[in-house]
């Protein structure tokens, strides 16, 4: 059984989290540990999957794992490789001028919370971070946490998820001007990989080195504790490191204090591992609303999603579904072909959802997706997302950011009345209730956003305009689709 086999190899709960019988959007415990689930735009478990490549491959890595050997829903037997370099404490990054040196030693796991669950909110660190958010001046909207289960289990609030309401991306694709979901320049691809570092990340980095590719890695705090040296290798070879939470939950289901600790602990372990603190993050599953946005702003974090041009056309390869078992590699390649086709139809560049957590997702990336991208005409400009936003890598981190041209999120906080905070700067690419069609069945247990506060005991200190511009990043992020 796949869960058992994968457990032995890698990440027990992660592998099982995507068991097809336990849809991750409908689970709770599994969500804590899950690898990735997005609003996939294609196959479901009941679809008839293609059995061959349905379009001509214009390029293929000669050392690629054969497509027939990239197994659906099962562990593979490919061996992993070691990272190219192990870095000593004090090593200086060469990609970012004046970046701090690596800390003298790697993080000690016992100094951090339990892996793959939301950290406690009553620790000394948590209390300090919660206080910092309270003192930030950022207005945290009074939006209740959503029910686990996505749109289908939150029917009472669906009418309020659009730009005039909570702007819940999961249900309708609403974005604010502070969200990054595209690259501004046509044919630029802000490459990214989520949910690592994993044992297979070095295979991806090896291909990056071979083809001179760099990307943004949205790293999970719990995975960094397990593999800090791989994160250092990602960082020191010129990739961008960004936050992807501590335990990979649906963030809108969490209380405000829980959202704070999910983000803050991940920022801390990255700082402790690399010496720099990311100022970009991606919500797992793209699950963000105005409350989660505000909390992330209070923690100096800018959200990055992925490109979405309609309710059924998101730039999601659905690669995570290969190990989960509901999609095969041919379907993922069909998704990628569709994404490349759509990339030629839009006026901007794009951001795609892929993962470095699983052997299959790395194999399909290095063997097929990236070679196809490298051979694409017109040529794609493939960079980390910060660079596709026309900024240097240095602007990805608190310690090296150019605050004059790229003000930090907290630097843009401007006190205004809370009543004017809603709806500003919003964009939606789909109906507010359409969701992704895979979000679980409807339920009568849904709650209303007016029933209770999602902020727990957190007090609003100084209301601000939620969607206030975030400097240069906001300027490019306003290029909505
Ligand atoms: Zn993820």
Automatic annotation (TrEMBL):
Its EC number is 3.5.1.41. InterPro entries: Glyco_hydro/deAcase_b/a-brl, NODB_dom, Polysacc_deacetylase_ArnD. PROSITE patterns: NODB. The keyword Cell membrane applies. Residues 419-456 are annotated as: Disordered. Residues 187-385 form the NodB homology domain. Its cofactor is Co(2+). It catalyses: [(1->4)-N-acetyl-beta-D-glucosaminyl](n) + n H2O = chitosan + n acetate. It is a lipid-anchor; GPI-anchor. Pfam families: Polysacc_deac_1. It is found in: Cell membrane. It is an enzyme of class 3 (hydrolase). It comes from the Eukaryota. The chain crosses the membrane at residues 458-480. Residues 1-17 form the signal peptide. Keywords: Carbohydrate metabolism, Cell membrane, Cell wall biogenesis/degradation, Chitin degradation, Cobalt, Glycoprotein, GPI-anchor, Hydrolase, Lipoprotein, Membrane, Metal-binding, Polysaccharide degradation, Signal, Transmembrane, Transmembrane helix. This is chitin deacetylase. It comes from Rhodofomes roseus.
């Amino acid at each position: 059984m796949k869960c058992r086999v994968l457990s032995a190899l890698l990440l027990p709960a992660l592998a099982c989290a995507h068991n097809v019988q336990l849809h991750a959007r409908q689970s709770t415990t599994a969500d804590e540990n899950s690898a990735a689930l997005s609003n996939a735009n294609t196959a479901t478990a009941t679809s008839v999957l293609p059995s061959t490549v349905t379009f001509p491959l214009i390029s293929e890595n000669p050392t690629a794992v054969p497509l027939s050997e990239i197994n659906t829903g099962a562990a593979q037997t490919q061996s992993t490789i070691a990272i190219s370099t192990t870095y000593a404490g004090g090593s200086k990054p060469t990609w970012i001028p004046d970046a701090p040196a690596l800390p003298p030693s790697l993080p000690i796991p016992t100094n951090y919370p339990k892996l793959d669950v939301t950290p406690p909110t009553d620790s000394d660190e948590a209390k300090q971070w919660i206080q910092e958010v309270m003192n930030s001046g950022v207005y945290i909207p009074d939006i209740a946490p959503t029910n686990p289960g996505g749109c289908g289990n939150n029917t009472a609030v669906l009418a309020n998820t659009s730009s005039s309401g909570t702007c819940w991306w999961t249900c309708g694709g609403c974005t604010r001007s502070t969200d990054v979901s595209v690259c501004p320049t046509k044919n630029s691809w802000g490459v990214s990989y989520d949910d690592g570092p994993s044992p297979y990340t070095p295979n991806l980095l090896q291909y990056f080195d071979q083809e001179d590719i760099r990307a943004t890695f949205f790293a999970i705090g719990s995975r960094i504790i397990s593999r800090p040296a791989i994160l250092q290798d990602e960082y020191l070879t010129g990739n961008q490191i960004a936050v992807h939470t501590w335990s990979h939950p649906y963030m809108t289901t969490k209380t405000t204090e829980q959202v704070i600790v999910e983000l803050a602990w991940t920022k801390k372990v990255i700082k402790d591992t690399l010496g720099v603190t990311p100022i970009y993050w991606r919500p797992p599953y793209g699950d963000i609303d105005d409350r989660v946005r505000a909390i992330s702003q209070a923690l100096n974090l800018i959200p990055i999603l992925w490109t979405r041009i309609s309710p059924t056309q998101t730039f999601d390869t659905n690669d995570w579904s290969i190990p989960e078992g509901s999609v095969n590699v041919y379907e993922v390649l069909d998704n990628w072909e569709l994404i490349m086709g759509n990339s030629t139809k839009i006026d901007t560049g794009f951001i795609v959802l892929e993962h470095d957590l699983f052997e299959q997702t790395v194999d399909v990336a290095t063997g097929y997706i990236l070679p196809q991208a490298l051979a694409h005409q017109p040529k794609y400009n493939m960079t980390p997302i910060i660079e596709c936003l026309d900024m240097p890598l240095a602007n990805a981190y608190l310690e090296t950011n150019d605050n004059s041209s790229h003000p930090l999120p907290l630097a843009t906080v401007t006190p205004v009345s809370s009543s004017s905070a809603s709806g500003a700067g919003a964009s939606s690419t789909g109906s507010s209730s359409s969701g992704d069609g895979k979000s679980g069945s409807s339920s009568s247990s849904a709650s209303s956003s007016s029933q209770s506060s999602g902020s727990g005991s957190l007090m609003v200190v100084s209301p601000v305009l939620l969607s206030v511009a975030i400097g240069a990043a906001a300027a490019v992020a306003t290029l909505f689709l």
